[in-house]
Amino acid sequence: MKSLNYIIGFALLFGGACKSIKPNGAGGDAAFPAFSTEAHRGGRGLMPENTIMAMKKAMDLGVTTLEMDTHITGDNQVVLSHDEYLNPLFTLTPEGKEITKEASRQLILYKMPYEELRKYDVGSKYYSKFPEQLKVKAQIPLLSAVIDSVQQYAKEKGMKQPFYNIETKMGKDGDNLLNPAPEVFVKLLMDVIRAKKISPYVVIQSFDVRTIQYLHKQYPEIRTSYLVDKGNLEDNLKKLGYTPFIYSPAYKLVDAELVKQCHERNMKVIPWTPNTREEIAQLKSLGVDGIISDYPNMLVEKP
Q: pLDDT tens digits for 220-238?
């Protein structure tokens, strides 16, 4: 009887493991939004980008998905940032002073410990590209802190569990200079995601095929999204080597035929980054499965 229990237990364990791995990295049993409204960098049209306050604002607006960028610091911490260096367009020194473009190129995140990085202000400086953005002192956050804040905020407000669309900001030319190797980046990222127990609600996206190729092989339960800004579907998928959960093109590349071809391959189409109501309405009319925008307020507006 004891040996029979072992056999039954093994069968249940093995069966459960098989069930959790679905086609295209379908992410376990968490149903992906029917239409994914995604706040680009937390919604930088309204709030300082890639900050905790931006994510909370996007949640207040009612988006389904929080889109964010990640980098690795000099002490192997996963942080939110689009740029590999401190961007002088919207960053101030710990003393509140401007940073020149030349000086910023020396302030590489991958060379800086987080304790130093967190002292810079990425929210107070006026950012002319997004004049409506709220100006308030903000810091570059740890991904772990973002997840903790989002999960707690959703619980306090009685909100539906949000999804996370997390980009790995890296490239081959930056290996060991601006970013670690793909397998190192992915492990550091996945260590945080698994520790926070949010894997079913995560999509990992990248322009760098190596990142999501590695994820597809080593973490098949994770949904992946292939970001593209050029080329055709056939050539891009050939380069990637597998069919991702999401195909995420620059929005000007999207037409009805692309949407049709993606759906025939059981891929969702989620373009980036339309920022006008007209562009958003046009994409919706083509049948896309979601939209990433700097203005999440536009995504959730009723027709």
A: 999 999 999 999 999 999 9
- pTM attached to this predicted model: 0.91
Dump pLDDT digits (tens) for 147-174.
999 999 999 999 999 999 999 999 999 9
The β-bridge relationship of strands 78-80 and 65-72 is: antiparallel
Residue 239: count other Cβ atoms within 10 Å of its Cβ. Answer: 12
Annotated domain spans of the chain: 36-83+140-300
Phi, psi torsion values for 103, nearest 5 degrees:
-65, -35
Which CATH architecture fits 36-83+140-300?
A: Alpha-Beta Barrel (3.20)
Q: Convert the chain into a string of H (helix), E (strand) and C (coil).
A: CHHHHHHHHHHHHHHHHHHHCCCCCCCCCCCCCCCEEEEHHHCCCCCCCCCHHHHHHHHHHCCCEEEEEEEECCCCCEEECCCCECCCCCCECCCCCCCCHHHHCCCEHHHCCHHHHCCCECCCCCCCCCCCCCCCCCCCCEHHHHHHHHHHHHHHHCCCCCEEEEEECCCHHHECCCECCHHHHHHHHHHHHHHCCCHHHEEEEECCHHHHHHHHHHCCCCEEEEEECCCCHHHHHHHHCCCCCEEEEEHHHCCHHHHHHHHHCCCEECCECCCCHHHHHHHHHCCCCEEEECCHHHHHCCC
